Fold this protein.
Amino acid sequence: MKSRSKLERYGLAVICCGVALAVAWPINGPASCFLLAVMVSSLFGGLGPGLLAVALSAVAYERFFVWRATPPTDEPVAVLRFAAFLVATLVVTGLIEMKRRAEESHARAEEALRQSQADLERISRLTTLAELTASLAHEVNQPIAAAVTDASTCLRWLMRDPLDVEEARQAASRVVTDATRASDIINRIRSLFKKGIPQRELVDVNEVIREMVVLLRGEATRHSMLVRTELAADIPEVMGDRVQLQQVLMNLMINSIDAMRNVEGTRELAVKSQRGENQHLVVSVSDTGLGLPREQTDQIFNAFFTTKPHGTGMGLRISRSIVESHGGRLWAADNFPRGAIFHLTLPSKVDVDE
Ligand SMILES: Nc1ncnc2c1ncn2[C@@H]1O[C@H](COP(=O)(O)OP(=O)(O)OP(=O)(O)O)[C@@H](O)[C@H]1O
Ligand SMILES: [Mg+2]
């Protein structure tokens, strides 16, 4: 209704009344024709055009019909009939207006609800972002501060007389390590937020797993690790971002490889896919490594939590946020008899949030 101009809406009322008059005249049935004209004008024009139609109909009714069927002696009946007509048209206009307002306020309430949900989501995302930024500043500051110290140590060794090249070289190489670490941290954060518009395509998760196994098999074999896959043939395809899903599997498999580097005995990395409940598919990545860090198991998904000398602690944090943006879940458990197992579920076909 709002999309139509005022002129169109009032014009509609005038046209409806004209048509009603033209139809009512030969059949001498003004009440139903004008009532219809008023209803159409109110419904499609709004309150103003509805009232205009009431006024025009009343004038036409009074001019052309009230006296037509009534002998002059029956004046009170004619007046009553006219009054009844007027009341009926006004009530119709009023009812239609009431219904429209109710619908509009319902639509407004729904819009407000949708808006506040969106706000809430944005706020919670911003909170995570704020937390991340605070810890990011801390995390990046450490290697940079170390790099500054090492660089000045390096300068001191270079200015010594006689100059000590070996000490200077060691300090310079520590600068390289520190600066690389700072840049690693920043790169991983960028990959978390650089999501851009996630691509949505049908992804065969088994294929993604096979690709990642091919990529990492060399590294695993070098450390005498066995890589085993158990992929169910009947798993549904997933609507998702292929590159992001590759990233998740890569993160999990590299973590498993890391965890097995220094363990004795069997070193086996197993990746399984199977059909889960409710149209979900379940992927699990298990290893026979060190196992999840005791007492800190619930922290492994936190940003920057790492037990590795050169880890950024962002791998699992990024992986979880990718899986959740696909409408799935990612969690960890102890593997039996040793090591860790990570499970992720993905819905086969849903609308994924952007
Ligand atoms: N398969 C696993 N077995 C045992 N511990 C694990 C395993 N995967 C993750 N963890 C623990 O969770 C921590 C966080 O893992 P995450 O992938 O987030 O970061 P990271 O591997 O330490 O660093 P990055 O991913 O940047 O190399 C690890 O440091 C490790 O303590
Ligand atoms: Mg990792």
